[in-house]
C-alpha cells in the first residue's frame, strides 16, 4: 500500500514535500507525471525517459489501453510495466475523461457509461467495477476511479447531479477495488476524484464524500477545462482544505508551468498534462525565459542552446538553429529533441520547487520564476 | 588525406578488409553508411547513432542541405559535423542523383545541370565547381563528384554520351577540389564516380577515365536503379577489376542485405541505402531469419524479441507485441525502435562480414546467411 511520508510543509504557504512509496519505487513530490497515453510517452524511448528526462512516474490511460492493445495482450504481457519496459511507477487515468471527450456517442446511466469507440465505432460499457478490472489488468501503481468530468461552463443543477453520481460511483469503485486483487504480485493503490465544477458547496460536498471513503490518495478533477485561471486557483485552494494532510493530492490535467507552481502553493503534490509533450511536437519550447516558437525565422542562424540554463540532452548537444532546421524539414528527430527538452524543463521545475519548499524560499522563488517563464514569445513574435 | 590501409583480401573471393583513416576517425570496411539526408538519420538521435547503432560514418546530401538549411547557416555553424553534433566521418552525395530524381525540371548542359527546387520551384545551377564549393561549406570527410546517374533501362547511345559527360565533369571536379581548401581546418577527400549503365565497354571506359584522375576513392554509380540483380552483380564484378586495390570502393545506393554481401564478395568496401531506415518506418524489420512485417496480426501477443540473436537497444528492451502495438497506434516511438533495430542489423552484418573475411570463412558464411536472411515474410504472410 502507498506510504505517504509528509517531509515538510511550507511555513508561508500550503506547499508540501512528500515521499510516496510505491511497489515500483519512491515518488518525490511535488511531481509532474509525463503522459504516456498508449504505453509510450510520445517521441521518447524509456531509457531517455528514465535517464535523461528523469521521470519518476508516468501516466497512462485506461480507455486507450483497453481499446488498444486490449486487456488480453496486456495480461499476457504481465501488465503495462513489462509490456512497455518501464520499472518505475505508473498511474492510470480511469478513462472517464476520454469517454466524455473522445467518444462521439456516450450515454450516462446510473451504473456506468455506455460509449462508442473513437477508433472503430464499437460499443462499450464502463462501470466502476469494469474500470477497476481493467486497471488490475494494466497493473498500474496508482489507479484512478471512474468519475464524470463536467465541462465548463456547467449549470449548477447538472454539476450537482454529476457530483452525486461521481460520489456514488466512488463507493462502487472502492468496493470493487477491495474485492479484487492485484494480478502481478505487487500492491496497487486507488485514488478518489473530487468533482463539483466551480461551485464551492459542491466541491466541499464532493471532497467530504470522497475523503470519507478513505482512498490511498485524492485527485481534484474537472478543473483546467476552460474556466478562468483565477477561478481554478480559487477552487484548488478551497478544495485542498478538505483533503487530508497525510495523503497525496493530485490536480488532474494541469498545466502550464505557472499553473503548476500556483497549485503547489495551494497544497497540490501531483500533476499531469499533455502540454509539454504536445507543445514540443508543435515546436513550442519552454525555457527559463519564456516560451520559444522554434520555427521562427530568427532562430535560423542562432547557435545558442534552447535554454542557456538547461542541462538536458537536447540543450547539451544541439543548437536552436539545428532544431529549427529539423522542424522546418519535418524531421522526426525534431519531435524527440523538443520533447526531451520540455519534459526535462517540467521535471526540473518541480524538483526545484521541492528544494525551495524545503529551504523556505518557495513563495519568493515562485514569484520570480513565474515572471520569467510566463513570457510568451507568441505574443510578440516577429512572424 | 584519406589513408587506405588494405588489411586483408579474401583468398576465395575479391572481398577485402580495409581501414580508412579520416580526420574524424577510422572507418573499418566493409561498411554500411546510414543515410542522414538532411543532417539527421531519420528517427534516431546522434547518441543512439554512435553508441547503440555503432555507425562509423553517415551519409548526407549536398542537394538537400544546399536547399535547407542553406550554406550560409552551414558555414556559420562551422560545417555539418558541428551543426548536427556528429564527430565521426561524414560522406556527402554530390546531389547529382537528387537533381535527376527529385527535380520536376532539369536541363543538362555541358558545364552543369540547371534544375528547379522540389521545395519552392526556385531555379538553381549545379556545376562541378559549385558542388565542390557546397561540399567545402558542408565540410564532409568524403565528398562525391557531380555526375549524371543514368536511369534503367538506358539506350546505349545515351549511356555513352552520359558516361563521357560524367568523365568530363570529373576533370572539372578534380580541378575545383585542388583549387579550393577546406574551411574548417581538417582534410577533406574527393571520390570519383564510375558510370556506364549496364554496358561493359562504357563501364571500362569510365573506370579508366576516372581512375586516371587519381581520386581518394572510387564509387560505382548508376546501379541498383531497376536492373536485374544478376546484371548488377555482373557489372560490379566487372568494374571492380578496373579499380585500384589501394583505394576504397563504394557501391552507391545498395542495398538489401543480400545485395551487400554479394557486392562485398565482388570487391566493394562501402555501401549506403535508405532501405533499413525507410523500411523501418514502414514496419519492415530485418532479422537473421528473414524480414518481418511488424503490423502483422500474428505479432499481437508475441512477446519474443524481434530477432532472438540481436542485441540492439530495441531487442534488448521491447517485444514484438509492444512494437506492433506502437505501429498500429501510429506512435512515434515505433519509428525510432524499428530504425535502431534495422540499422544495427546492417552494421552487425558488415561487421561480421569483416570478421569472416579475416578468418577466411566469408564465402561459406555468405551462402548460409543469404539463405536465411532473404526469406521475405511478405511472400508468405498470413495477412
Task: Describe what this molecule looks like in 3D.
2 copies of one chain form a homodimer. With 383 residues, chain A is of the alpha/beta class. Chain A has 15 helices and 16 strands. Chain A has helices spanning 46-51, 62-67, 71-77, 80-84, 96-102, 128-138, 156-179, 200-212, 229-240, 257-265, 275-281, 313-317, 320-328, 332-358, 362-373, and strands at 3-9, 16-22, 25-29, 31-33, 58-61, 90-93, 106-109, 112-116, 123-126, 142-144, 189-194, 217-220, 249-251, 270-272, 284-287, 290-293. An 8-stranded parallel β-sheet of chain A has the order 4-14-13-12-11-10-6-5. In chain A, strand 2 and strand 3 (25-29) form a beta hairpin. In chain A, helix 11 packs antiparallel against helix 14 (332-358) and helix 13 (320-328) packs across helix 14 (332-358). The radius of gyration of chain A is 20 Å and the shape is globular. The model of chain A is unreliable at 379-383 (pLDDT under 50). At the A-B interface, helix 3, helix 13 and helix 14 of A face helix 3, helix 13 and helix 14 of B.
- Rg of chain A, nearest Å: 20 Å
Largest sheet of chain A: 8 strands, parallel
Mean pLDDT of chain A: 96
The general outline of chain A is globular
Low-confidence spans of chain A: pLDDT under 50, at least 5 residues?
379-383
Distance between the termini of chain A: 53 Å
Tell me the total number of β-strands of chain A: 16
Question: Tags for this entry?
Answer:
disordered C terminus; 15 helices; globular; homodimer; eight-stranded parallel beta sheet; 16 strands; alpha/beta; 383 residues
Amino acid at each position: 500500500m502507498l506510504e505517504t511520508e509528509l517531509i515538510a510543509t511550507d511555513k508561508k504557504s500550503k506547499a508540501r514535500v512528500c515521499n510516496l512509496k510505491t511497489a515500483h519505487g519512491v515518488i518525490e513530490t511535488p511531481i509532474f507525471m509525463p503522459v504516456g497515453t498508449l504505453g509510450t510517452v510520445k517521441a521518447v524511448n524509456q531509457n531517455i525517459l528514465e535517464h535523461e528526462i528523469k521521470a519518476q512516474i508516468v501516466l497512462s490511460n485506461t480507455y486507450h489501453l483497453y481499446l488498444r492493445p486490449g486487456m488480453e495482450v496486456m495480461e499476457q504481457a504481465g501488465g503495462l510495466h513489462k509490456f512497455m519496459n518501464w520499472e518505475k511507477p505508473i498511474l492510470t487515468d480511469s478513462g472517464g475523461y476520454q469517454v466524455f471527450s473522445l467518444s462521439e456517442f456516450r450515454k450516462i446511466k446510473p451504473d456506468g457509461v455506455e460509449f462508442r469507440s473513437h477508433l472503430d465505432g464499437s460499443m462499450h460499457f464502463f462501470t466502476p467495477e469494469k474500470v477497476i478490472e481493467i486497471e488490475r489488468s494494466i497493473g498500474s501503481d496508482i489507479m484512478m476511479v471512474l468519475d464524470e468530468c463536467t465541462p465548463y461552463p456547467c449549470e449548477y443543477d447538472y454539476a450537482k447531479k454529476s457530483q452525486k453520481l461521481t460520489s456514488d460511483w466512488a463507493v462502487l469503485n472502492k468496493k470493487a477495488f477491495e474485492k479484487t486483487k492485484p494480478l502481478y504480485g505487487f500492491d496497487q493503490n486507488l485514488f478518489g476524484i473530487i468533482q463539483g465544477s466551480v461551485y464551492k458547496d459542491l466541491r466541499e460536498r464532493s471532497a467530504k464524500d470522497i475523503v470519507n471513503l478513505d482512498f490511498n490518495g485524492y485527485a481534484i478533477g474537472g478543473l483546467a477545462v476552460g474556466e478562468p485561471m483565477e477561478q481554478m486557483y480559487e477552487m484548488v485552494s478551497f478544495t485542498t482544505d478538505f483533503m487530508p494532510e497525510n495523503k497525496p493530492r493530485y490536480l488532474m490535467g494541469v498545466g502550464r508551468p505557472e499553473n503548476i507552481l500556483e497549485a503547489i502553493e495551494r497544497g497540490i503534490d501531483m500533476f499531469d498534462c499533455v502540454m509539454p509533450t504536445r507543445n514540443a511536437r508543435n515546436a513550442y519550447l519552454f525555457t527559463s525565459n519564456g516560451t520559444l516558437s522554434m520555427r521562427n525565422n530568427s532562430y535560423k542562424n542562432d547557435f545558442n542552446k534552447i535554454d542557456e540554463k538547461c542541462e538536458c540532452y537536447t540543450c547539451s548537444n544541439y543548437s536552436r538553429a539545428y532544431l529549427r532546421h529539423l522542424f522546418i524539414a519535418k524531421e522526426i528527430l525534431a519531435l524527440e529533441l523538443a520533447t526531451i527538452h520540455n519534459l526535462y524543463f517540467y521535471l526540473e521545475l518541480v524538483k526545484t520547487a521541492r528544494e525551495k519548499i524545503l529551504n523556505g524560499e518557495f513563495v519568493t522563488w515562485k514569484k520570480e520564476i513565474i515572471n520569467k517563464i510566463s513570457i510568451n514569445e507568441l505574443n510578440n513574435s516577429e512572424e
